């Protein structure tokens, strides 16, 4: 069998990285452009970052998006973990297939359908019970939790499927109660999946535009909605600066999660 030359593999890797990250690097570079024209370099400048901090509309939208993303991701982790635990540990029970299908359905459902159905549901609830009173942050959080918990459930279920159950059996032999077993043994073992699910939910919520457009109300626009409305009038260097800050936040979150997962992995290996 003829072996591939190392140079070919390196070239393929560099082409792959360039395909993935060249647009992002270009956006970051032009966020420091002094010119008002986003494609004409006019020298290095930080004025667009300064202008961004003075833009109350973008700052308010960023605060709304971060608040929605943090709350949605946290609730999705709780509900998704319970769903994944039920599907993985309760074996066969009546309605298991229906529950599994209903949990994974949001993964393949078009966002337009999800947003429209949630809008109709909120309108019907408001007409029947008076809640929720209009559309706002609460309805956006509920909408984001509905599709984020599906991703968390899949991640947690996959982690539980590969978990060594002998550790839980040993804890039960030593007298651990079910809740003690869950919080002191199972939960730490699946913590990497919980961190991954939270980060995935946070990113999906922060990035969502379509569903939020259906269920948000006046004065509660999320950051993607504001960016999309501005981009329709033309891309400005201010938007490049905002996108660069978002990339920085996501990169720091991913690096922090990776560091925490490696730390836990080393701790498990040292205790083994």
From TrEMBL:
Q: Where is it located?
A: Cell membrane
Locate the coiled-coil region(s) and give their ranges: none
Record InterPro entries: Bact_Polyamine_Transport, MetI-like, MetI-like_sf
> By its UniProt entry, which Pfam families does this protein fall under?
BPD_transp_1
What are the record's GO terms for cellular component?
plasma membrane
- Just give the chief location class: membrane
Query: Where are the membrane-spanning stretches?
Result: 12-32, 62-87, 99-125, 137-158, 179-200, 239-259
Report the superkingdom from the record.
Bacteria
Give the residue range of the signal peptide: none
Domain named ABC transmembrane type-1 is located at 62-257
Record keywords, A-Z? Cell membrane, Membrane, Transmembrane, Transmembrane helix, Transport
Q: Which family does it belong to?
A: Belongs to the binding-protein-dependent transport system permease family. CysTW subfamily.
Return the protein name.
Answer: Spermidine/putrescine ABC transporter permease
Query: Where does this protein come from, organism-wise?
Result: Marinobacterium aestuarii
